[in-house]
Amino acid sequence: QVQLVESGGGLVQAGGSLRLSCAASGSRFMFDVMAWYRQAPGKQRELVAAVAGGGVTNYADSVKGRFTIARDSAKNTVYLQMNSLKPEDTAVYYCKMSVRPLGYDYWGQGTQVTVSS
Questions:
Q1: At 63, is the secondary structure helix, strand, or coil?
Q2: Spatial CA neighbour of 97 closest among 61, 52, 43
């Protein structure tokens, strides 16, 4: 059974930084896409950043230049470095790992990020 465990969330002042980590265990397959999503209260879950196996990255416009996604495929781990945090970044952050050829998507349990003004 595949499990994703996130860590690194917390409370930070505006302008501060946090680093999220998400480690997967139990998979027999390599994940081709690793991503971070977030969901703020009353809003839909949205894609924050994604990284493919070849290293190609994709970011939401709202985080470009402030967030950096990185992966360690050997460790089945994905990271999200968040700098210059803003109150509007406050949300529950979820990692997602996919094996697209097989249609498998796995989600973490979520970690709260709160940015105070």
A1: helix
A2: 52
Q: For 10-57, what is each residue's pLDDT tens digit?
A: 999 999 999 999 999 998 888 999 999 999 999 999 999 999 988 899
CA atoms of 12 and 93, how far apart (whole Å): 14
Which among 62, 67, 104, 81 is positioned nearest to 22, based on CA atoms? 81
| Residue with tokens 């703020």, as numbered in its chain | 40
Contact status, residue 3 vs residue 25, Cβ threshold 8 Å: yes
Token output for 48: 């924050």
Give the CA dihedral 72, 35, 8, 85, nearest 10 degrees. Answer: 120
Stated length of the chain = 117
